[in-house]
Amino acid sequence: DAGVIQSPRHEVTEMGQEVTLRCKPISGHNSLFWYRQTMMRGLELLIYFNNNVPIDDSGMPEDRFSAKMPNASFSTLKIQPSEPRDSAVYFCASSLKGGKLYGYTFGSGTRLTVV
Amino acid sequence: AQSVTQLDSQVPVFEEAPVELRCNYSSSVSVYLFWYVQYPNQGLQLLLKYLSGSTLVESINGFEAEFNKSQTSFHLRKPSVHISDTAEYFCAVSEVASGSRLTFGEGTQLTVNP
Fold first, then answer.
1. Which residues of B touch A98 (CB under 8 A)?
2. What is the pLDDT along chain A (115 residues), one digit of tens a residue?
3. CA torsion B49→B51→B52→B57, rounded to 10°?
4. Which of A48, A53, B16, B74 has the fewest CB atoms inside 10 Å of its own CB, making it the most exposed?
5. Which pLDDT belongs to residue B53?
6. DSSP-based three-state secondary structure for A84
């Protein structure tokens, strides 16, 4: 298996632009998680899905952020409009049966820079 | 709700020295415990986990962690570290009876110096 695949690996955009991050989870995994990692705040859970349904989006910073999972093999995290404070590394992770037994498999991340 | 505290944000050690990375958790119910490792510019990788049974769990690269229920701790140890162990280490907890999510600690940066 290729693991969790995220694209792009790096994204540089101007403030105010829309940014879309993409994630392909491991085939057969039914839970998907979006995390944000910064030096100041560490690893923050933004949202997670079970069987393509959003379960907890309380970590989404504000309405500028939205996430979708239209099917079991694809998810997007969108920021519109982007701001410099959104600069961070965004990780997607997937797991089998919620992850509490098996842990998560993380992607390599998307490094977002908003200038 | 559960929480995790990693007591040291940075741990510098010399090569071949022993190391302990400390992790304490808080939960009112039974938990599963995990350690993840993050090498520079990579995602987190599962290092080891405690689910049940023996309280001492080991990884394939020489790390071990011991679940101590009375002290609510899950410290990570290695008797002799290598330069290649330099990375950030995250402790995580999930509740046995409910929920899907892992709660992560703030991370500990282990730096192994020659």
1. 99-101
2. 679 999 999 999 999 999 999 999 999 999 999 999 998 888 989 999 999 999 989 899 889 999 999 999 999 999 999 999 999 999 999 998 766 677 889 999 999 999 9
3. 0
4. A53
5. 85
6. helix
User: B5, B3, B45: which is closest to A109 by C-alpha?
Assistant: B45
Contact A90, A75 (CB under 8 A): no
Omega before residue B40 within 30° of 0, cis: no
Q: Which residues of B touch A107 (CB under 8 A)?
A: 43
What's the rounded mean pLDDT across residues B25-40? 91
**Element at A47 (helix H, strand E):** strand A42-50
First CA to last CA distance, chain A: 36
* Overall size of chain B counted in residues: 114
Amino acid found at A76:
T
> B94 to chain A nearest CA, in Å?
6
CA distance A100 to chain B (A): 6
- SS3 assignment, position B92: strand
Q: How far apart are CA B102 and CA B80, in angstroms?
A: 29
Q: Please give the DSSP secondary-structure letter assigned to residue A26.
A: P
